[in-house]
Amino acid sequence: MSAVSINNLAITFDKQVLFKELNLSVPFGYWVALLGRSGVGKSTLLRAIAGLEKNGIQQGNINTQGKIAWLAQQDSLYPWLSILDNVQLKEYLTHRKTKETKQRAESLLNAVGMTAHLDKACYQLSGGQRQRVALARTLMQDADIILMDEPFSALDAVTKLQLQNLSRQLLADKTVLLITHDPQEAIRLADQIYILQTHLDTKDISFSQPAILSEPIHLQGNAPRDLHQATLWQLQQQLFNQLIGKDENAL
Ligand SMILES: Nc1ncnc2c1ncn2[C@@H]1O[C@H](COP(=O)(O)OP(=O)(O)OP(=O)(O)O)[C@@H](O)[C@H]1O
């Protein structure tokens, strides 16, 4: 049995058919990257897996095994709460904060390198620091499945690399579905990569084709990977070509 299995899924918004007969299976403990261009339906699919997409689903079923947490691109911190309360958000909202939950939050904030900033308000943090707090909050939830919607895409290159490495290290034993439009990120972090491809008609979405999922690409070795190997650079070029719909040898 898989941590996430999607069978025969169809999602349509008005005239726009995003998915027609989509099937996907995410094995337990794997990091799976879903790579696709803007507008192909990546976030919608993630919302559907989280049970948040009610309107567009026409057919099919989605099964998830275990508790789900979400790590988003957008700054999801509550600016009027302290950093510690943001990490203990669930406990804060359910009035279940204790000395133990505070200690755990502090230790997770230490793990993500935020100990020196605990006295700051959330609005005083940089984008990278906010994502570190969001990562600590995801860890605090101790979920089995982490849905990541481009969590690193707004960060500068060095912060992105640091947070990718940190997330891979701290969430090593979790099942992760990572949505990204960055082939390099997918190669650095994932055990398997799928490409979501479609022909998007920007003038009339009723002519857009439903997205199709590629065969999985299996990556060797431990993540996070450095891209110093020639084969990984070739793979990156291949993924770019697939994303823009070109023949592998055409660029
Ligand atoms: N609730 C909705 N009602 C109507 N259309 C929607 C709804 N949600 C998403 N869409 C449309 O579905 C398409 C896919 O959106 P989605 O956000 O899933 O794309 P994406 O691949 O995540 O793009 P990006 O990488 O730019 O975030 C878009 O054309 C969007 O306008």
Automatic annotation (TrEMBL):
Cited SUPFAM superfamilies: P-loop containing nucleoside triphosphate hydrolases
SMART domains membership: AAA
Domain ABC transporter: 4-223
Entry keyword annotation includes ATP-binding: yes
Domain of life, source organism: Bacteria
PANTHER family for the chain: ALIPHATIC SULFONATES IMPORT ATP-BINDING PROTEIN SSUB 2, TAURINE IMPORT ATP-BINDING PROTEIN-RELATED
Family the UniProt entry places it in: Belongs to the ABC transporter superfamily.
Name the UniProt record assigns to this protein: Putative hydroxymethylpyrimidine transport system ATP-binding protein
Taxonomic lineage of the native organism: Bacteria, Pseudomonadati, Pseudomonadota, Gammaproteobacteria, Pasteurellales
